[in-house]
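Example record for the data management plan.
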Amino acid sequence: RALTEAGYEPLQASYGPRHARIAPSAFRTLHRGEEVAALEELRGQIRVIVNRFDSTIPIHGELVEALGVPGPSAEATRIFKDKARTHAFLVDNGLSALRPQTRIVPREALAEALESATLPVVVKPAVGVKSRGIWVLRFPREVPDLLRRLQQHEWSTETQRARREPEAWLLEPCLTGPQMSVCSYVDGAGELHVLGFEDIYSGRHLGQDHQQLVFRTTPSEASGDVRRAVEAALRQIVEAARLRSTMLHPEFIIVDD
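Corresponding structural encoding:
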């Protein structure tokens, strides 16, 4: 009701009479700083805003700040929605050991970089392919075939529309250790609360040659030392990012070092 009175048109939602979505046109206007600032008049009238779409995560962060409701800030979503920014954030805050040691390679230098890479290595486009085009190079003899497959691969809609291959590629160590998820939340004071640890089952558990997540609902069998190390790493990230009022369900790959 408060949003309607402010001139934002709610849409009829299919998941309950007490819920509504903001019209897409309203989301577009919220990109302008003055529109978000105008919503500050609604502070106290709206108690929570639930985001349901990846495309509106940045807008949700702006609304959280403008309305003073629980949720991740615009700065937090800026850091963690884009993997490149997440990598830069970890490096800038002395947390580089928690990230894969990624190399960004221009398209014209990819062949040479693959020839000198430490194998196995994960090869994937830097941006714009929605998880498509991710390959694992395990042996030097596979380089020519991989380059050919990369050229023939059908990219995402955005890349097809541009009618070109990605301009840059990411090379990362292929980490194959056990995977774990942490069900947790950060309260309004920035304190991390861990609800439980879950083992992640991927395609490899089903005999497939990939690590695509299958499910993550099984209580973890990891040792206490591993759980404490994962929680300590997550706590460092939460404190560095100054997260507040946020549910967290991050995934970790456990390696010896």
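Summary line stored alongside the record: Residues 224-241 form the longest helix (18 residues).
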